[in-house]
């Protein structure tokens, strides 16, 4: 067994469900907290759940919000669920105004002139320095209504800014990530219009150099439902030498991992990849830090083993739930910081839509909020 | 370790594993695309749709492939390929004569456009990155050719720049591989780090104005242990379509401006709405470039494609079956066995004859034609084709504006004059559909379904191969399995229908693409199955005027007209993803057209013939109507009413 020493998040803080509520009660009730809540303005019905809950708590301090608006250059993309978008915006305004806060709109440009997917770059530029957030004690990023291409570079940039900040009179802000996990709703939101090829996410690329061309590549796909087309495109893009799929286990649905194996059995076991069962890694679907740990362990294992032939590259594909994807992000971030050639691949898509009865999905009281504390006071003591 | 089960699904050059395996499966027929006299004298530009085989062609000329081929020179199945490459002077008895270095343009280059820099700075960084990668790639290839290790043995390489070329500061005019490796490696790392960084651009990275690397790595001054490595050096740029438009344009201008001592090959995807000729100053085709359109080459020589595809399939079948099955085509029945369709043909001739007599009515006009058909001998199926042909001709005659007298009997000569082969093909199609007989079977039709794209051929064949393998395993005798016509059609239709359903997931502008394809497909069905079969054997595409094509390329027009913009995007997406096949400057009725044919596999989806030829002219407004309103159900109903 490979032990990973010095993992930044060996000890971590997270809460979910009823603990989420009690955590924020205590956290905001104990002392004055100036909160900057960052969320994506999308059609996802969960967009305002977390901010309503947190801003509704008693406590003193600023309660401001940055809403990321997704701007496509082409006005021709059919916009699904425009009514949900409008409702979400109205709800958000109500929630923030109720506590006397301000909403700042920031545009996320989805495409640049050369038909490139620009969203990741745009997201990384939302914050230029911590000075923009000097008034706030806590930055909360709610990724529930954000696509991967936005929240990955956004969180990455904040971690870099926090880690690079010098000692100052004022401490660095706390960084919280919120995920409102609703598996049923997640399974109903489908990608539409996939990009033809996979790519590395901005700020998690630059591993395919001429000098690294001969290095073997290890692929860690974090599996989720309904992603067979994406998996095939990523496989064609990176052409892996070894594959270590990550399955969510344990899981609320104890058969979920089995169902994923059944869905991808041909791709994984009987096609070209012929993954060995012992290469499969498992992580609790509700614990991103466990996913982070398992992925780090895998990366370090292959790094050590392949060192004799000059090292290896690792490509992580977080095409699963947001919780596990956060775990993948943390693993990639830390490994890259240590100089390892670790990238994050995915397939951009042009649009999303909800399949099934939208009214039914919105009205049912469902979903579990998760709070993930990534940086700040609890790590400094 | 990866184990391969169905070799037909190993469709990408990069995934074919070892070089020996790649060469074993590589069919030499594709080398016909290179003109032997000029292959090494000019820039080779290779264009095709996705999966056309560009990357495989480039990989063939890399040191690993050539060395592996040299090692297996006289052994089948490598001997044929060795002979062909020898004829092209890529390899001789002493070893490879060309040092090929393959560089993919898919990684990082286009991201330079997103940096917060002035355009001129981005351009210079693009050239810098290209220079760095050319040098690194050549160093790797050179060491591989000499069987040394990269980068450990770079010091064994010597380079010197051709005289008269100005190099940027810090780059020696001559030196060892170590000097250039250190420089190029640092430059590549610095540029890629900056592209990928979340923090602002901090390091001052030198930008270049010329592709001086091509003068640095020329064959005369590229030495290893003091000796010349190869007769010629070829830098092969793959996926050039992945460059940003401005970068492609810059690359063209750099190549056009001067003639370097190092040969350059370009491989890119064909996109009819955005690709123009590479060289604008005069006609340099032949003198300074060979432009090879792979699918066009195969379409113009379909029999060669069939032979090439057959060879590709046989090699894979042979490899997977360990020599037990040597012919893939032999496993596919190319006739409909009488027993398969006996039940369906029973009574069909009588029904057909009754229908004709009813349609002819009381007129004597067709009596001689009908008598001639009654005398036809042959299998029930052949007889039915004859009667169905007759029905089409009678329908055509009935619908003629200029009628003849009822007492006039049409003669045998008139029947022979009208009954051309395309009418028979149309009749066969109609009859197969009416009687639910298989039409899409046999190796020849499978090759047609591939739309001259080897990747598509392998995808379709892979599904058939799965069944062949199963049959082979289950068979008690050692006989070579043979799939009957009906089963072939079922397998192919299932695979193609699955592909059709996946369109919405596969491509950008998915709903517009779907509407466009459905509109084209439904129109083709309506036109093909008209009782008179006016466009026999059928219609499989549409055409727009070349002047309309220009409108779809005009940004100002597109900005003003949303539907035109959507149409342009949809057509571009279809062409880029091989869902439509485009042909430019087709002359018809005194005008020039851009013809858009359905990918042949979608012809199967719409029960259309696989031949090219028949198309219907359409205006941009007609096409916009499809996109604006969606696919027309009424057209489908109209077709159904005829059967």
Describe this structure in words.
The complex is a heterodimer of chains A (381) and B (643). The radius of gyration of chain A is 20 Å and the shape is globular. Chain A has helices at 18-30, 49-55, 82-98, 119-124, 148-164, 183-188, 228-238, 256-270, 288-306, 322-337, 358-363, 377-380, and strands at residues 13-16, 35-41, 63-71, 103-109, 138-142, 174-181, 189-194, 199-200, 217-222, 242-243, 246-248, 281-283, 313-318, 342-346, 349-354, 368-375. Chain A starts with 12 loop residues before the first strand and ends with a helix. Chain A is of the alpha/beta class. The relative contact order of chain A is 0.17. Chain B is of the alpha/beta class and 643 residues long. In chain B, helix 9 (294-300) crosses helix 10 and helix 21 (510-528) runs parallel beside helix 27. Chain B has a 5-stranded parallel sheet with strand order 4-9-10-1-11. A 4-stranded antiparallel sheet of chain B has the order 6-5-7-8. In chain B, strands 13-14-12-15 form a 4-stranded mixed sheet. Residues 275-284 and 631-643 of chain B have low confidence and may be disordered. At the A-B interface, helix 5 and strand 7 of A face helix 5, helix 6, helix 20 and helix 24 of B.
User: How many DSSP H or I helices of chain B?
Assistant: 27
Give the mean pLDDT of chain A.
88
Shape of chain A: globular
Count of distinct strands of chain A:
16
Strand content of chain B: 5-15%
Oligomeric grouping of the chains: heterodimer
Secondary structural class of chain A: alpha/beta
CATH fourth-tier homologous superfamily of the largest domain in chain A: Hypothetical protein VC1899 like domain (Restriction endonuclease-like)
How much strand content do the residues of chain A show? 15-25%
**Main sheet: strand order of chain A:** 1-16-6-5-2-3-4
C-alpha end-to-end distance of chain B:
54 Å
For the largest interface, the chains and their residue counts are:
A-B, 46 and 57 residues
- Name the strands of the widest sheet of chain B in spatial order: 4-9-10-1-11
CATH architecture of the largest domain in chain A, please?
Answer: 3-Layer(aba) Sandwich
């Amino acid at each position: 067994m490979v032990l990973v020493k010095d993992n930044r998040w060996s000890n971590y803080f997270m809460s979910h469900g009823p603990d989420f509520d009690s955590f924020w009660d205590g956290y905001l009730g104990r002392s004055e907290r100036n909160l900057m809540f960052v969320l994506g303005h999308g059609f996802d019905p969960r967009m305002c759940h977390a901010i309503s809950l947190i801003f509704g708590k008693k406590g003193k301090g600023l309660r401001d919000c940055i809403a990321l608006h997704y701007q496509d250059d082409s006005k021709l993309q059919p916009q699904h669920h425009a009514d949900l978008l409008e409702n979400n915006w109205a709800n958000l305004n109500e929630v923030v105004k109720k506590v006397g806060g301000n909403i700042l709109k920031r545009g996320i440009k989805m495409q640049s002139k050369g038909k490139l997917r620009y969203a990741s770059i745009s997201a990384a530029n939302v914050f230029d320095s911590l000075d923009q957030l000097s008034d706030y004690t806590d930055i909360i990023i709610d990724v529930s209504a954000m696509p991967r291409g936005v929240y990955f570079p956004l969180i990455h940039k904040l971690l870099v800014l926090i880690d690079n900040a010098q000692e100052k009179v004022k401490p660095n802000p706390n960084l919280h990530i919120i995920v409102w996990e609703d598996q049923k709703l997640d399974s109903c939101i489908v990608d539409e219009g996939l990009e033809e090829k996979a790519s590395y996410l901005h700020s998690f690329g630059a591993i395919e150099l001429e000098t690294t061309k001969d290095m073997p590549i290890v692929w860690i796909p974090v599996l989720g439902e309904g992603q067979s087309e994406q998996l095939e495109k990523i496989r064609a893009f990176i052409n892996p030498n070894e594959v270590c799929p990550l399955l969510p286990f344990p899981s609320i649905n104890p058969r979920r991992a089995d169902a994923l194996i059944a869905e991808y059995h041909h791709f994984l076991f009987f096609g070209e990849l012929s993954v060995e069962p012992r290469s499969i890694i498992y992580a609790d679907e509700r614990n991103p830090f466990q996913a982070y740990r398992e992925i780090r362990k895998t990366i370090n294992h292959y790094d050590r083993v392949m060192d004799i032939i000059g090292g290896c590259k690792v490509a992580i594909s977080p095409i699963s739930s947001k919780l596990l994807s956060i775990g993948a992000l943390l693993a990639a971030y830390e490994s890259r910081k240590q100089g390892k050639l670790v990238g994050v691949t995915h397939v951009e898509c042009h649009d999303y839509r909800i399949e099934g009865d939208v009214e039914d999905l919105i009205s049912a009281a469902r979903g579990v909020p998760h709070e993930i504390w990534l940086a700040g006071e609890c790590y400094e003591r | 370790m990866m184990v391969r089960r169905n070799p037909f699904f190993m469709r990408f050059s990069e995934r074919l594993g070892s070089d020996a395996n790649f060469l074993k499966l590589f069919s030499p027929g594709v080398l016909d695309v290179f003109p032997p006299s000029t292959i090494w004298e000019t820039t080779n530009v290779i264009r095709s749709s996705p999966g056309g085989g560009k990357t495989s062609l480039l990989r063939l000329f890399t040191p690993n492939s050539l060395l592996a081929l040299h090692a297996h020179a006289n052994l089948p199945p490598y001997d044929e390929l060795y002979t062909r490459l020898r004829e092209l002077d890529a390899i001789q008895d002493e070893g490879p004569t060309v040092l090929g270095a393959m560089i993919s343009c898919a990684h990082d280059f286009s991201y330079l456009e997103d940096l917060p820099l002035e355009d001129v700075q981005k351009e210079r960084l693009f050239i810098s990155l290209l220079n760095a990668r050319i040098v690194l790639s050549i160093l790797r290839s050179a060491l591989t050719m000499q069987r040394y290790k990269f980068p450990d043995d770079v010091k064994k390489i010597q380079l010197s720049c051709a005289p008269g070329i100005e190099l940027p500061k810090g780059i020696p005019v001559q030196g060892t591989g170590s000097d250039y490796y250190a420089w190029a490696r640092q430059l590549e790392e610095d540029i890629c780090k900056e592209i990928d960084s979340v923090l602002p651009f901090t390091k001052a990275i030198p930008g270049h104005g010329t592709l001086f690397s091509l003068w640095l790595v020329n064959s005369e001054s590229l030495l290893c242990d003091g000796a010349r490595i190869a007769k010629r050096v070829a830098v092969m740029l793959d996926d050039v379509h992945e460059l940003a438009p401005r970068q492609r344009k810059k690359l063209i201008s750099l190549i056009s401006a001067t003639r370097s001592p190092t040969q350059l090959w370009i491989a890119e995807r064909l996109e009819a709405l955005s690709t123009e000729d590479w060289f604008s100053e005069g006609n340099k085709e032949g003198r300074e470039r060979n432009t090879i359109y792979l699918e066009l080459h195969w379409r113009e020589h379909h029999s060669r494609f069939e032979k090439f595809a057959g060879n590709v399939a046989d090699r894979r079948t042979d490899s997977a079956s360990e020599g037990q099955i040597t012919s893939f085509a032999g496993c596919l029945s190319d006739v409909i066995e009488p027993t398969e369709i006996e039940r369906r043909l029973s009574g069909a001739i009588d029904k057909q004859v009754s229908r004709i007599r009813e349609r002819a009515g009381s007129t004597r006009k067709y009596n001689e034609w009908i008598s001639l058909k009654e005398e036809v001998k042959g299998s029930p199926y052949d007889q039915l084709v004859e009667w169905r042909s007759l029905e089409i001709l009678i329908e055509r005659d009935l619908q003629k504006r200029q009628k003849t007298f009822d007492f006039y009997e049409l003669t045998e000569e008139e029947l022979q004059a009208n009954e051309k082969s395309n009418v028979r093909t149309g009749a066969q199609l109609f009859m197969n559909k009416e009687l639910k007989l298989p039409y899409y079977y046999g190796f020849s039709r499978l090759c047609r379904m591939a739309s001259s794209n080897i990747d598509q051929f392998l995808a379709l064949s892979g599904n058939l191969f799965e069944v062949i393998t199963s049959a082979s395993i289950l068979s008690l005798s050692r006989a070579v399995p043979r799939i009957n016509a009906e089963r072939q059609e079922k397998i192919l239709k299932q695979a193609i229908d699955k592909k059709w359903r996946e369109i919405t997931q596969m491509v950008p502008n998915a709903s517009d693409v779907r509407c466009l394809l459905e509109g084209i497909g439904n129109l083709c069905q309506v036109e093909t199955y008209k009782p008179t079969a006016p466009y026999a054997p059928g219609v499989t595409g549409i055409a727009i005027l070349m002047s309309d094509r220009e409108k779809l390329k005009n940004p100002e027009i597109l900005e003003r007209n949303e539907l035109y913009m959507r149409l342009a995007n949809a057509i571009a997406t279809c062409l880029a993803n091989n869902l439509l096949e485009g042909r430019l400057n087709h002359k018809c009725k005194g005008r020039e057209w851009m013809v858009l044919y359905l990918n042949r596999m979608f012809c199967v989806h719409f029960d259309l013939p696989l031949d090219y030829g028949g198309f219907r002219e359409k205006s941009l407004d007609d096409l916009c109507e499809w996109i604006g309103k969606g696919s027309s159900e009424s057209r489908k109903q109209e077709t159904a009413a005829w059967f």
